[in-house]
Structure formats: C-alpha cells, structure tokens
Specification:
Length: 221
C-alpha cells in the first residue's frame, strides 16, 4: 500500500511539474533577427533555421506499367445556412474565450525595445517620432493592464544624423503548459457544443433523404 501511495504521489508531482513548465518564444533583434522556442530550460532555434545537409537520394527507375489513377471520392457537404451561422457563432465564442484567458495568463519577460528615429528629412523624422511616441504611450498602459509585463523598458530617441530608423530589442512571450490547456479548453468548449448537435442534424437529414429515396424506388417498382 505504501508503494502505491508513493507511485501516485510521484505521478501527481510529475503532472504538477509538467503543468508548471513554461513554454514561449524569445525574439531578439539586433543586427539580425533570431527567434527561439523555449520549453523550460531547452531552447530550439526557429529563425534562422539550421540548414541540414541534403542526402543524396537514389534514382528511382520508372515503372514499366503506369499505375491506374485512383477514383477521387466526392465530398458531399450537407450544410445549411443555419449550420453556417451557428458555426460562425461558435468560432467567435471560442476566440473570445481564448483572448480572455491569454490576457490573464500570458507573461512578457523580457520587454526591452529601443527605437532611434532617423532619416534624411528632419521634419519627417520629427513627425515619425511623435507618431511612435503617441502610439507607444497609448498602447503600453493598456497592455500592462491586460497582460503581465515584467519591468518593461521602452527607449525612444531621435538622431537627425542617422540615415534611417534603428530598432533593437528583446521580447519574450511565455505561457505555462497548464495555461495552454486552459486556453485549449476555452476554445474547444463552444466548438464541441456546436459540433455534436450539427452532426446529429446532419445524420438525421441524411437518414431522411435515404428513406425518401427508398420510398420513391419502392413506388416506382
């Protein structure tokens, strides 16, 4: 009995550790752009990708007899206007649920962005700086209310001698595995709520059509 409780305790601890595991993307922009997928302590490069050496593939001999083409199955969609409306409603509800849960659970660590506006025309440089400043300081307070941003650092400056605008920074977006499951459940619930009644209605319409066809054939004979 003690061994069983130890096994159950170890499984429960493993599940908790997996649910608390952090998954996210780290984007770094300096002279080049790098994108890393972070799964706990493991980092997997997404961009730029590591090029693999192409293996030499042996030449295939052409078959003497050409294969007969397979007959394509016709896909019949028994969908009514009501089904489309309910599907759109379910997708919207799923999207709303995902957005609500993402806002509560996503974490931005780090958030370091430096923008130095430059260019050959001083009047346009000043105009761009004003637009960027207004956009940043309008959006950032709202973002900090919606999601968790730890110690955001936003640096804006103007360099009239610079040939162009320079943007550098580091941005990390993270979620825990448990948060991803909660988001997936929020998306799946309205979709499944739509899908099962839709399948029942579809099968009922197909059965009614088959019965009507059989009745017509009986009357003809």
């Amino acid at each position: 009995m003690t061994v069983l409780w130890c096994i159950l305790g170890a499984l429960a601890l493993l599940i908790i550790l997996v649910l608390l595991l952090r998954v996210g993307v780290l984007v770094t922009l300096t002279d080049t752009l790098t994108v890393l997928l972070r799964i706990g302590p493991v980092a997997i490069p997404l961009y730029p990708t590591v090029e693999k050496k192409a293996k030499a593939t042996p030449k295939k001999t052409k078959p003497t007899t050409e294969p007969t083409p397979k007959a394509k199955k016709k896909l019949s969609l028994d969908i009514t206007r009501q089904d489309v409306q309910e599907a759109l409603k379910a997708v919207w509800q799923a999207l709303e649920g995902v957005l609500r849960r993402i806002g509560r659970r996503v974490r931005v660590i780090p958030c370091e962005v430096s923008v130095v506006v430059g260019g050959p025309w001083p009047d346009k440089v000043a105009e761009q700086y004003g637009l960027i400043s207004a956009a940043v300081w309008t959006v950032m307070p709202r973002l900090e209310q919606l999601i968790h941003i730890r110690d955001p650092y936003i640096h804006l400056d103007v360099d009239f001698n610079a040939p162009s605008t320079n943007v550098e920074g580091k941005l990390g977006l993270y979620l825990r595995v448990g948060d991803l499951l909660a988001i997936a459940f929020a998306a799946a619930k309205p979709l499944l709520k739509f899908y099962f009644p839709f399948r029942r209605r579809q099968k009922a319409r197909q059965a009614a059509a088959a019965a009507q066809t059989g009745k017509t054939m009986t009357n003809n004979t």
